[in-house]
Design brief:
alpha/beta; Sig_transdc_resp-reg_receiver; CheY-like_superfamily; Bact_response_regulator; phosphoprotein
Length: 134
């Protein structure tokens, strides 16, 4: 059962991402409204996929990607960046930091589902052990 962490400061956007991915069989979703909250969640629970915005009020998406890639237990966690920043510099920076895919808003449900399916099929069963960490 894929565990997905959806991080965006917009509740509407988080709900839209969840609605787009809900048809993915047996997925379970956790939502975070900031980069700091995302990092807290990532230290508490194992996830199979991280869907992340770049623009957030405290810790930005790039910094969250850098945190994930700096952790041995999280290094293989697939990350989809979903952002309004469609410029090439943002795309390059996100991918260089370690994002798996970069998508711009607006996106279609099919494109997000396809990206998630592709990454989940390639990923190891869990990026972390099932046990919570302290």
């Amino acid at each position: 059962m894929p565990e997905v962490l959806v991080v965006d400061d917009s509740k509407v956007m988080r709900e839209m991402v969840v609605a787009c991915l809900r048809p993915y069989p047996d997925s379970r979703f956790t939502q975070a409204s900031s980069g700091l909250e995302a990092i807290e969640q990532l230290t508490l629970k194992a996830y199979d996929l991280l869907v992340l915005d770049l623009n957030m009020p405290d810790i930005g998406g790039i910094e969250v990607v850098e945190f994930v890639r700096g952790q041995d237990q999280l290094r293989s966690l697939p990350i989809i960046i979903v952002t309004t920043r469609g410029d090439e510099a943002s795309r390059e920076r996100a991918l260089q930091a370690g994002a798996s895919l970069f998508m711009t808003k607006p996106f279609t449900p099919d494109s997000l589902q396809g990206a998630a399916r592709s990454l989940l099929e390639k990923a190891p069963a869990k990026a972390l052990d099932e046990a919570p960490r302290g």
